Amino acid sequence: MSHFLTLEDIRDICYVYAKAHLTHDEPIPSFDTRYPEKLEAVLASPQTQIGGRFVHSSMSRQAAVLFYEMIKQHPFLNGNKRIACVSLMVFLSLNDMWLKTNWRELYDIAITVATSRSDNREGMLQLLTDFIQNNAIEK
Fold this sequence. Notes:
By secondary structure, the chain is mainly alpha-helical. The protein has a single domain (7-138), classed as Up-down Bundle (Four Helix Bundle (Hemerythrin (Met), subunit A)). It is built from six helices and four strands.
C-alpha cells in the first residue's frame, strides 16, 4: 500500500525544502497564500479509487499523477515546478524508492509538463510514468 503525501508533508518537507534550497529568480511566497482547494485536489489525485481499487495502481503512475497535477493545477502562487520536484522525490522516498536523476533533468521535465497542452494529459502521464519506472530504484 502506498504512503501518500499529506498537507502536512507538503508544508513541512516539500515546501520548506523547495523554498530554502531550490532558489530561483522568483521567490516562493508564504505557504498560507496557496490555493487550498487546489492543493487538496492535487494530493487526492493519486489516491483516486473506483469500486475500492486504485485508478492509478502502480507506484510509478501514482508518482506521475502527483507530479503532473502539482504542476498543472498550480496550487501555489509561485514555485509549483520546484515544489512538484521535491514532492515527487519525497513521495518516492516514503515508499522506499529513489529516482536516479539530477535536479536539472527533473526540473527540465517539470518545464515540459508545464508547457504541455492539457489535451495531451494522458501522453504526458505515460511519459512521466515511463521515466519514473526506468529511473526508480528501491532504497
